[in-house]
Amino acid sequence: MIVGALWYSPLLFAAPWVRMSGVKIEKGSSHIVEYVGSYFAGLILSAILAVVLSIAGTQTIWEGLIVAVMVWLGFTAAPSFANTIFENRPFGLWGINSAYPLVSSVLMAIILVVWR
After folding, report:
1. CA-to-CA distance for 116 and 64, rounded, in angstroms?
2. Of the residues 27, 33, 71, 89, which has the fewest C-beta atoms closer than 10 A?
3. Tally of CB atoms within 10 A around 114
4. 52, 54, 50: which is closest to 42 by C-alpha?
5. Burial (CB count within 10 angstroms: exposed 0-12, middle 13-18, buried 19+), residue 40
6. Are the beta carbons of 71 and 109 closer than 8 angstroms?
7. What's the pLDDT tens digit per position in 12-34?
């Protein structure tokens, strides 16, 4: 969730994301539903990634990174790329939206491998 807050902040990709997505940002709105949903999505992602890392028998950070990238490529990048094409959305938006789970997954994999 911290990565997402930074990723979609004015410091990084807020302006191009808003421009390409067409989402209207309302001043003063709390977005509590979005943050709670994002939190639970992150918990699910980290739990599933922990299982996959365990099944893959990862022992090193490098192995964890490879697993995280492969999972992202097969289960996030490829389907979201197809959706982007069919929805006729900008590829830059796909880059912003799909790179965020890549970065999150890589960071989670590092934490999970070191933690085990």
Report:
1. 11
2. 27
3. 10
4. 50
5. exposed
6. no
7. 999 999 999 988 877 777 778 88
Whether 97 and 18 have beta carbons less than 8 Å apart is answered as no
| pLDDT tens readout for residues 46-71 | 999 999 999 999 999 999 999 999 99
φ and ψ at 47, to 5 degrees? -65, -45
Q: Which two tokens stand for residue 97?
A: 């939206």
Q: What is the dihedral angle through the alpha carbons of 6, 10, 11, 15, rounded to the nearest 10 degrees?
A: 110
Q: Which of 56, 33, 38, 46 is nearest to 2 (CA)?
A: 38
Residues 48 and 54: their CA atoms lie apart, in Å, by: 10
User: Distance between CA atoms of 19 and 24, rounded to whole angstroms?
Assistant: 9
Instruction: Identify the H or E element spanning 62.
Output: helix 61-72
How far is 91 from 82, CA to CA, in rounded Å? Answer: 11
pLDDT confidence of residue 31: 78
Question: Strand, helix or coil at 14?
Answer: helix
CA–CA separation, 39 and 44 (whole Å): 9
